[in-house]
Specification:
Radius of gyration: 34 Å
Number of helices: 11
Strand order of the largest sheet: 2-4-5-7-6
Shape: rod-shaped
Oligomer: single chain
CATH superfamily of the largest domain: Histidine kinase-like ATPase, C-terminal domain
CATH topology of the largest domain: Heat Shock Protein 90
Length: 349
């Protein structure tokens, strides 16, 4: 949306094209006005107006050529294309103007004299078209830079919003409160389990607080954070929660944004306990297939009863995927055979 607003603020090709050729007309008309015979001002206006109209139309055609081929070429070939276009369109401009003179003033038209002067005229027009081409590519580059700047600002704003969402996951007060309660209960009952829980909680919080939502990390670190999170939840729910991880070595090396996996795991626990028979089963699987990472978080139960917060979290997840892997990602949330499956696919660049 921001890019669309930026495009509206930037000058369009037609505004620049019309304005530029009007300036060109005024310049050549005023230049020749001082040497024009008395009483020929109107004819001079028609001649220079026709010249300007031909230049306007020819450069519109040339623009189509540049749009068709210019973006695909290197700088050297673009320069060569511009020079070739200047020569060909300069000749075309000369021939069209010669035909116009012959038709509108046949008595004064001298073909031999005009033909002798045509190389110099064609060179003048070629230089005009060369200047137009330079302005065209220069303005086009400037507009592209402006759009890129707008996109960078928009990306920075999205990154800030994503970082806020990351902080929401990092500092989930309910999770921390429940974990500390479980830890307190375990200290007397099972000190060894309490020590393990402290270690898991410390590792999870360390990763949470150091994680940068815009930074990419190996999936292995995301899996480790998810394992710590689910290990803590396992202490709370004991036999009511069953967890399974399956990830190949190649998948573990795949780089993904920080805290991409944890929102899916958190939703699986939160909504799985509301919509699943006990024990709740959670599976986290990752593999690389056809040079794409396939990441799946599944839980027993159904989709019904998801709160608004989940929809917001999944919307943010989609936005983060689109920002980090534009055009090469997909996310689906499906239900079937008693399981809810959240699937992420990321094609390698």
């Amino acid at each position: 949306m921001s890019s669309a607003r930026a495009d509206k603020r930037l000058p369009s090709f037609w505004k620049i094209q019309i304005g530029g050729w009007l300036i060109y007309f005024v310049m050549i008309y005023v230049t020749f006005l001082s040497v024009a015979p008395e009483g020929s001002f109107l004819r001079l206006f028609v001649i220079k107006g026709f010249r300007t109209l031909v230049g306007f139309c020819l450069t519109c055609v040339l623009r189509l050529v540049y749009r068709r081929f210019g973006d695909r070429l290197s700088l050297e070939r673009t320069v060569a294309l511009a020079l070739a276009g200047a020569i060909l369109f300069g000749l075309a401009w000369t021939w069209i103007e010669m035909a116009f003179s012959a038709l509108t003033n046949p008595a004064a038209f001298n073909f031999s004299s005009t033909l002798a002067r045509s190389p110099r005229i064609a060179l003048d027009y070629a230089m005009t078209i060369t200047a137009w081409s330079g302005l065209y590519f220069g303005i086009k580059s400037w507009l592209a830079w402006q759009r890129e700047r707008e996109r960078a600002l928009e990306s920075a704003a999205q990154a800030a919003a994503a970082q806020l969402e990351v902080l929401r996951y990092q500092l989930n007060p309910h999770f921390l409160f429940n974990s500390l309660n479980s830890l307190r209960a375990s200290i007397d009952e099972d000190p060894r389990r309490a020590r393990q829980m402290v270690t898991r909680l410390a590792e999870f919080l360390r990763y949470s607080l150091l994680a940068d939502g815009a930074k990419e990390v190996p999936l292995d670190k995301e899996i480790e954070a998810a394992q710590n999170y689910l290990a803590i939840e396992k202490v709370r729910f004991e036999d009511k929660l069953e967890v399974e991880f399956e990830a190949g070595l190649e998948a573990r090396d795949f780089r993904v944004p920080c805290f991409l996996l944890n929102p899916l795991v958190e939703n699986a626990v939160k909504h799985g306990f509301n919509n699943s028979p006990k024990p709740l089963k959670i599976r986290v699987a990752a593999r690389v297939e056809n040079d794409a990472l396939l990441l799946e978080v599944s839980n027993t139960g159904r989709l019904g009863g998801c709160e608004n917060g989940t929809r917001i979290g999944l919307k943010n997840l989609r936005e983060r995927l689109a920002k980090s892997f534009p055009g090469r990602n997909s996310f689906t949330l499906t239900e079937g055979d008693g399981w809810v499956r959240a699937r992420i696919s990321i094609q390698r660049a």
